[in-house]
Amino acid sequence: MTALVEIKGLMIEGRSDETWSPIIKGVNLTLNKGEVLGLIGESGAGKSTLGLAAMGFCRDGVRISGGSVMFDGIDLLNASAAVKRSLLGKRIAYVAQSAAASFNPAHKIIDQHTEAPVQHGVMSRADSIKDGIELYRRLRLPNPDEIGFRYPHQVSGGQLQRAMTAMAMSCRPDLIIFDEPTTALDVTTQIEVLAAIRDIVAQFDTAAIYITHDLAVVAQMADRIKVLLKGDEVEEADTRTMLSAPKQDYTKSLWAVRSFERPTKPAVPAGAVPVVSVRGVTAAYGKAVVLHDVSFDIHAGRTVAVVGESGSGKSTTARCITGLLPPKSGTIAFDGVTLPADYRKRTKDQLRQAQMIYQMADTALNPRLRIGDIIGRPVQFYSGLTGAKRRERVDELLDQIELDPRQYFNRLPSELSGGQKQRIGIARALAAEPKFIICDEVTSALDQLVAEGILRLLARLQDTLNLSYMFITHDLATVKAIADEVVVMKDGHVVEQGPKAEMFSPPHHPYTDLLLSSVPEMDPDWLTNLLSERGLDNIGDAAVDKM
Amino acid sequence: MQSVIRIILQRLALGLLTLFVVSIVIFVAVNSLPGDFAQALLGQGATPEAVAAIRTSLGLDQPMVTRYLGWLAGALHGDLGSSFAQANFTTFTGTTSGAKTVAQQIAPRFANTMFLAGVTAAIAVPIAVTLGLLAALYRNSVFDRAVNILTLSSISSPEFFVAYILILFLAVLNPILPSLSNIYEGMAFSDRLDKTLLPALTLTLVVTAHMMRMTRAAIINLLASPYIEMARLKGVSPLRVIVRHALPNALAPIINVVALNLAYLITGVVVVEVVFVYPGIGQLFVDSVKIRDIPVVQACCLIFASAYILLNLTADILSILSNPRLRHPK
Q: Which residues of A328-337 are buried (b: 16+ CB within 10 A; e: fewer)?
């Protein structure tokens, strides 16, 4: 049997500041008809670049400098633009990470669905619409007859992701590249999409390259797994072998990340005054009430993880605590003292006590300021230190976040990696010498290894400085790693709260149970077992709606 | 749809408020011009009595607030007052009855200006948008650079210079078009068009660059978006990517720059009118300022302001309508 895709010695370079540096350094890849290959690695490993190169496509500022890409006997690197266009969409299709960004906001979903079949002369528009509706049905989208006639912004992220898979299927291609199709989704939504993708790929015997950084996800989807590191192949093996017996140290380290877990702390003494006390907070944006009677406490030196899907009110709770969004009713107390609802009415010392670290370190740091100033400004603002003393304090903070002051003091944020930027975000929060820090999805934009480093740093800082954390996350692995107590939120309500050990052992609130059971596990049979446990008709939306 | 209607009504109310504020600014500014009509009419040797008589007959002796309110009330009824220059001053105490009203004086001039603006827009907008699309499609190619250089050169040259160059080539060396635009009422449309073409071409050269470059920039700005990459990965042809996938999302900035240029065509074409002796509102405006014919100046300013506000309002509303999120809320 000849391979569908045969990539040999592929070299790809990317341009930065007029020089070309290698992104992919001589990778080989073979994909047979109907086979699913998982491509994993951290960000910057070159997964997406390789996936796109398998389509003969390069983004702007990227060029293929060597090797060959053969698709079913056609040399894609030397084919004319017209030949490549005749393959793209028709025989090779692409499913992007963010369906919300990859659907054109100006056209209805079905019009984008029919574009490839009509343009390539595969089907008439009417036939393609009929076929699209059938695909929507197979992908278990709600209202399959009607959903395509909506605009992308009228459909939820998980549904859009399935609609995009349907669009990729519209010409029944031989190969689909899935580029992190579920990374942006909540765990409960991710399951539906994973199941839908897996079924439809099997039904049409489509070959696929499945790109992700999530090992547990790739374990469900792929027949074979290839691990990439900085543009080089680390190893490749069939899924079960790779999971049970990884050969390379790097692969083993990836596998080991999920093992970090903090020991359980002794119970809080009765009668202790919590550092932060949220009491009966109800909040609204305009008329839309988004928080209903939320109450919980955070004690000194403890971490409370607030978990829930997007839109459940986690970040809004944080905005209420910081005073950015004064609640309609309820109170926020700090060390037993009720704070003014509006941050503008709080004293400087009250403001100093509570700091925030943000999800996107990229956008939370001023790109024009040097690291020494980013950290130095809050030092000066809150403690009044200037000159050499300020410099001394900044150095101390940099030491605390494990970055060498001599090396980093004068750098710009753009000269740092994602994990380092997040460390600067932490140092900036520490500069105020707070008692309490809100961590808003601080690790979700980071690779697992880097994320673990951040979690370990936060844990160490908590132990040495007796900090309290409110840890907003949708990732239950993170919760397991760092939380002492857990608050589960859904639609602005707290559905369950308690110590971590209690939350992770049954009996659960049904929603907590759904969340917990939706977290992919490394077992390649996990998805199959879970779906049969839940019953196919009962997944995702349906299960959530019943609560 | 309801939210769209609400937004439009809000914008409309804001537009009216702006117009009201502008009317105050116009009135105060025009009335603070040095010199006055009576002085200008009678010249250096006028007796103070004669000047005062004319001022009284024109109501110039009233306090400013009274005059403003009178003017505003009139304007709201569509009465823009009577032109000083057309008034009958045979006896210094005479009345202004029988004089031509400002509205009568402005109407034909305004119609001419609108005709010129319309012809120019009909030529310039399609050319600019098409060139912008093509420049985005073949960006950084020789074609793109040539279009950029040509349009930038024409916008950088003074209008009268462009006008004389066109006259030289199209009226003098090759007598295809008339160099004078002496249009009058009751002219056949084709004649009128023929006489208007040269000034319209001049203005086309002046306004195309701005619109073309904005179209190009707005489209290129979108080419890095994931949905454009998606379209390319579906094997869609480059032209279709630009026209079908990029253009609908780039409409808002394009509409705005088109509106801005249309406003310019109505309010800022004095120089071209002078060169071609085109009887538009711009010339009337300048003449009226010269002789301090306050009612005409005020009326012209008010028309210019309304044109700006109305066109920007239209652009706003069209931009809103071009956004599917607002047309089809969740």
A: eebebbbeee
